Amino acid sequence: MAINILIVGAGKGGTSLIELFSADEKVNIVGIVDADSEAPGMKLAKKLKIPTAKDWKRFIKAKVLDEIIDVTGNPKVYEVLLKEKPKLTDLMSGRTAKTLWVLLENQKEVEKKIKITTEEWGKTFDSITDLIFMQDEDFTITKVNRALAEALKLRPEEIVGKKCYEVLHKRNVPWENCPFEQTRKDKKSHTEEVDDPAIGIPLLVTTSPIFNPNGKFIGSVHIAKSITEIKKTEDSLREKIDELEKFKKVTVERELKMRELKERIEELEKAGAK
């Protein structure tokens, strides 16, 4: 339920509070009061379609107020408000309001930085070509990058919330030699080669543990790198080695036959000489 507030004073302080509270769903600005209808806060209030008036008593009759914030800077105004405000309505002085404004502005700035950082992290996460997802301690996928979603030909929302072995291996139980099983046991990083026909490509999979601020294990980051080219290279090298082995065998056999033939010729020459 939103808090109903009335701002008395539409100067610089009042304008700042309007800007701050108008974007907060938990706060309902009942009205803005100022003797000067041309004050910046009054103009902003009209633009935002917030009721305005020169007499604050108008809003007392119209709605129940939770809080009146006096930012006029006039001690007499504060005294009148303190004396005539409804009993259940709190009154905040300009000094307190300024402190609140500073605190809220700092919080707003922190939230802005967090949002920017989160967005940048998300872009970086999605720009990585390796297949990456995060999972909780019970194999449930909590976040995936674009590369994984595209490789599986699914939307991220079709993957998140499901067990990794269901999505990747089409199984009801974890994959044999699953590196995450090892990570769950010793809370360390593990790497395994996974070549599952259900996935279609050979992968080098690494799972790294994730801990909360209290040091409790809560899941892992799962990074899968395609080793298709490496496998092709290995197969090519293996074929060449086989060819070399065959060539070597043929060469050796031919050398032995040539030696036998040479020895036979020498024997015949000796026999003829006698």
Number of domains: 2
State the end-to-end distance. 125 Å
- What is the assigned CATH homologous superfamily of the largest domain? NAD(P)-binding Rossmann-like Domain
Number of strands: 10
How much is the radius of gyration in Å? 39 Å
Low-confidence stretches: none
> Taking all residues together, what is the mean pLDDT?
84
What is the overall silhouette? Answer: rod-shaped
User: How many helical elements?
Assistant: 10
CATH class of the largest domain: Alpha Beta
Quaternary structure of the protein:
single chain
CATH architecture of the largest domain: 3-Layer(aba) Sandwich
Looking at the structure, the CATH topology of the largest domain is: Rossmann fold
User: In percent terms, what proportion of residues is strand?
Assistant: 15-25%
Please give the largest β-sheet: 5 strands, parallel
H/E element string? EHEHEHEHEHEEHHHHEEEH
Provide the structure class: alpha/beta
- Helical fraction: 40-55%
Q: What strand line-up does the widest sheet have?
A: 3-2-1-4-5
